[in-house]
């Protein structure tokens, strides 16, 4: 891929995915606008702030916009994530968020590429491992338990969030588990974004003893085939340093970075 290809893919990401608004929003989810920002409440364990561009806001005007979000979520007694992309302007946005009390979490790389290349991959699963599409709350709870074992923190919000999405529009998301002997060893989900050419991949955490065996790659290929069946031509992933090399070998291109800046009252 050339730099021009990466820029074109980033432009598609900006134009079609951002701002990241659930469509349709699940019951109990509210979507509000404050200038260029979109504020989403009730979707997850914390609020979410997204946007396509800040429309040139800088200096005191930008600080005032950030302060309004702090005041809003402080009033609710609720944490909020401001999703900052590496190419967002102004360049000092991260510093301004930090000055307002937001704390940066781990940086991830945004990769984008053609669905076809991923769907054509034919990884071999380890003996005894199978992939299965799930919707039942019991299975979502098993996914959360696996994620908690991997990350050593509370992932119960996944159960509520995924269940809401499946309930409101089961055609917009598919959740897939990798099981071995009845144990969930890895899981991921794919969202098919309405009115775009994109599918987005999420999850992919794998129990330590099952890593390096091709399970993550198999989950990626399986979900890409689901996306291809629904007419999607591009796929996007916010990926960790561990998964980035795998995805780039499969044809995805790094187009920017993303860092969650979290304010907790």
Can you walk through the features of this model?
Helix 5 (137-151) runs antiparallel to helix 6 (156-168). Helices cover 35% and strands 30% of the residues. The radius of gyration is 19 Å and the shape is globular. Strand 8 (173-180) and strand 9 form a beta hairpin. It has helices at residues 3-16, 59-76, 93-99, 115-120, 137-151, 156-168, 215-229, 244-249, and strands at residues 30-34, 37-41, 47-50, 80-85, 103-104, 108-114, 129-134, 173-180, 183-192, 198-206, 234-239, 253-263. The model has no long low-confidence stretch (mean pLDDT 95). 30% of the residues are buried. The termini are far apart. With 265 residues, it is of the alpha+beta class. Strands 1, 2, 3, 4, 5, 6, 7, 8, 9, 10, 11 and 12 form a twelve-stranded mixed beta sheet that branches.
